[in-house]
Specification:
By secondary structure, this protein is mostly beta strands. The chain is built from 4 helices and 22 strands. It folds into 3 domains: 100 residues, Immunoglobulin-like; 96 residues, Roll (Mannose-Binding Protein A, Chain A), CATH 3.10.100.10; 94 residues, Roll (Mannose-Binding Protein A, Chain A), CATH 3.10.100. One of its GO terms (biological process) is glial cell differentiation.
Length: 302
């Protein structure tokens, strides 16, 4: 029997070869004769998407499709330079620098269903530019238009500039507010986290901690990109409004403005996904589509 999982694994009569970033993470389960289940360990953000497995047995062949979804959170992002400053490639890089990837339309749509409302258009991974509106208003495409995800269509990736919608998933570590007796500037914040055995947290890491670790702190702090933010799970007076979310206070002067700091400490001996495993039926390969949602760093069987 010959099984090839596109872009990752090739198997022929007991011999296997794994390619690229999948080396050491992808292999056949081989639970019994004819079992073509493929296991992906330590799932990363880059593994999100559609997988195709072609199974060939003598003169017969079949193909199966699996959409690998990730549990995660979508967040809008723009750099210190301001809004509408990123072309597609810069938006892609900006998300990666914040421990995230460009979000897909389905991820943005799900975030909108969960209440995301943002009045600035941003790049998605397919090259389209969209933005989610839960509360229509005149400043965001007219008040009399229905709520939904507004779509500018596919834009020129080099010349046109927008914000970005990023997607991140569970952390392989912990974000925490570093308790100090005094507030610090950015350079001092970096040193403080290092002395504590950590690094200044990235924006995607803070969003993941807010979403999955329920981090709730009504104190503004430095992040790695030089922005000031704080996560609120339980809204209350004097903590930035009536809705949960990650509050953003902008990009202040790194040298003269003083705040707290959010640090990130990576797990050394365990993964954020723990032992959680997602498995889709593979007793017989048929032409089908299925979708699974799992945390980053878990194992998936497809």
């Amino acid at each position: 029997m010959h099984c090839s999982l596109r872009m990752s694994l090739w198997h022929l009569e007991g011999q296997q070869r794994v390619f690229g970033s999948y080396k050491g993470r992808v292999f056949l389960e081989q639970a019994g004769p004819g079992d073509a289940s493929v296991i992906i360990q330590n799932v990363t953000l880059e593994d999100y998407g559609r997988f195709e497995c072609e199974v060939t047995n003598d003169m017969e062949d079949d193909t199966g499709f699996v959409n690998l979804d990730l549990e995660g959170v979508v967040f809008p992002y723009y750099p210190r330079e301001g809004r509408y400053k990123l072309n597609y490639h810069e938006g892609e890089d900006a998300c990666k620098q914040q421990d995230a990837i460009l979000a897909s339309h389905s991820q943005l749509h799900k975030a909108w269903l969960e209440g995301l409302d943002w009045c600035n258009a941003g790049w998605l991974e397919d090259g389209s530019v969209q933005y989610p509106i839960s509360h229509p208003r005149d400043q965001c495409g007219r008040k009399d238009t229905p709520a939904g995800v507004r779509n500018y269509g596919y834009r020129h990736k080099e010349d046109e500039r927008y914000d970005a919608f990023c997607f991140t998933s569970k952390l392989n570590g912990k974000v925490y507010f570093l308790k100090r007796f005094k507030k610090v500037n950015y350079a001092e914040a970096v040193k403080a986290c290092i002395r504590d055995g950590s690094a200044v947290a990235k924006v995607g890491q803070l969003y993941a901690a807010w979403k999955f670790q329920l981090l709730d702190r009504c104190e503004a702090g430095w992040l790695e990109d030089g922005s000031i933010r704080y996560p609120i799970v339980n809204p209350r007076s004097r903590c930035g409004g009536s809705q949960p979310g990650v509050r953003h206070l902008g990009f202040p002067d790194k040298k003269f403005r003083l705040y707290g700091v959010y640090c990130f400490r990576r797990n050394e001996d365990e993964t954020a996904g723990g032992t959680e495993t997602t498995k889709s039926p593979t007793n017989s390969m048929t032409r089908r589509k299925s979708s699974r949602s799992i945390p980053v760093n878990a194992s998936s069987v497809i």
